[in-house]
């Protein structure tokens, strides 16, 4: 979104949809946030149709949501601060970012949640 007119056009195209309660536009990140009960694919189609611009779902999630945010496929240098790529949709990257049973076994040994855990000081 280059100008205020583009921002207004995108906002107006989505505000008229049934189920949309709030629309936030961030022109610096080229990001449109839609809050409400509405199908994301219908929002994409509507924005593409009304504006003639390319639109896609936001590929990033907060790094707190991902189990291994620095795994290959999840970490992305282009992501805004505090965000990583959403690897739950990508089957190849999701397999790389998940913990193996071997890792889970040894990380829970030293967990505070495990009452029988081993403590090393």
UniProtKB/TrEMBL annotation:
<dbReference type="GO" id="GO:0046872">
    <property type="term" value="F:metal ion binding"/>
</dbReference>
<keyword id="KW-0479">Metal-binding</keyword>
<dbReference type="Pfam" id="PF00403">
    <property type="entry name" value="HMA"/>
</dbReference>
<dbReference type="InterPro" id="IPR036163">
    <property type="entry name" value="HMA_dom_sf"/>
</dbReference>
<feature type="domain" description="HMA">
    <location>
        <begin position="1"/>
        <end position="56"/>
    </location>
</feature>
<protein>
    <recommendedName>
        <fullName>HMA domain-containing protein</fullName>
    </recommendedName>
</protein>
<dbReference type="InterPro" id="IPR006121">
    <property type="entry name" value="HMA_dom"/>
</dbReference>
